[in-house]
Known about the structure:
Arc Repressor Mutant, subunit A, DNA-binding
Amino acid sequence: MNDVTESELQRPRQAGESNGATRERNEREILEAAERIFAQYGYRGASVQAIAEEAGLPKSNVLYYMGNKRGLYVRLLERMMARWNALLDDISVDDDPAEVLEAFIRSKMQLSRRHPEGSRLFAAEILGGAPFLQDYLRGELREWVRTRARIFEQWAERGLMDPVDPVWLIFLIWSATQHYADFEAQVLGITGRDEITDADVERITRFLTQVILKGCGVRPPGSGA
Amino acid sequence: MNDVTESELQRPRQAGESNGATRERNEREILEAAERIFAQYGYRGASVQAIAEEAGLPKSNVLYYMGNKRGLYVRLLERMMARWNALLDDISVDDDPAEVLEAFIRSKMQLSRRHPEGSRLFAAEILGGAPFLQDYLRGELREWVRTRARIFEQWAERGLMDPVDPVWLIFLIWSATQHYADFEAQVLGITGRDEITDADVERITRFLTQVILKGCGVRPPGSGA
DNA sequence: GTCTATACTTAGATAGAC
DNA sequence: GTCTATCTAAGTATAGAC
Lengths: 225, 225
């Protein structure tokens, strides 16, 4: 007869691939697709169906791998927070302000550059009142800001920079560096381009570094203590 | 019998109010409620039901007044664009750079302050790829940016400010001034407050003006040509 | 381990009672 | 002019076939 075996019927999988590899690949594609969809529509606006279509899988497959919509969303938020934490290196009062601020601006720009959907996902979460991130903001992130702010103040006391409000300086850097990713549609619409290139990112980084350092009275890197 | 007239049955309206007044009041409350809900959840994430509850009206009443969800959303976007256009006064090369930039920062801050939900509504629209605002961005707004950018360049040629990229300067001001409204949840979470006061807004305005003007090599207002 | 079929809820929108 | 009742589509989630 013309019967085919069960395994032949049910595997649109490439030869040589084990079950574990399929799971890994599917999970990765679901996560990527979900990050795009959640970033674009927000938590409520995103549908599991839309995520499944973006990933090229049936809807129930997404739920099978991820459990439920909420868990998938939380997992993506946590992944983005982990990326963010990975570049939060410690600084000390004895570091050079110009070098620290430049590195801060540059690493923040590159994070948004590498993960624009993650950046927009985070932005949408905050825009909606941060229902899933309240604890993170009031805990870890608040402490991070507090310690940096203290160091900026000490730099100002030592005359290494102007006595600007350190918390608002941090917010200024965050907003400026995220803007080109979160508001990409606006940037592209106004500039008339169809993408932001690596060269653009480098120019923006230099522009922001120059304006913010000069604006805070910080001497450029390498001009001595 | 105990019959009441039709009009008595159907008006939870205050005495002395005409039909026109009810409509006006209901429409206003729906618009305010919808701005909050759309700002929080985005276009797709917002439900007519949620808007109706926020406005204290039945769902079909919202649709009766506004036609459909899409029309309501577009109307709110256009209202926000109108507010924005209202403060886009013309500037000339002969104006004082410091005064113009300070007024620009201040008016932008106040727009976000007065209409935080409108600001977040706009942000959510851009975040989602600006599906309803493509034409506005590529038309009116692009022209606005182009003319300002040209003037900033001429100021730089005259030595009134540093030769920074004028378009990125405009984006920097936009991002910095919108941040405290759009990312209010983050600002409050990190600073540990429960609201941003008028005094905070004034402090932020001064901080941004100082840093950006100094950062671009613009002399403070009143220091002569 | 994967997908089809389906249960159950909520969505946007409208018809018709009042 | 306003609201209740209802239609159809789409939402999340699960049970069970394969």
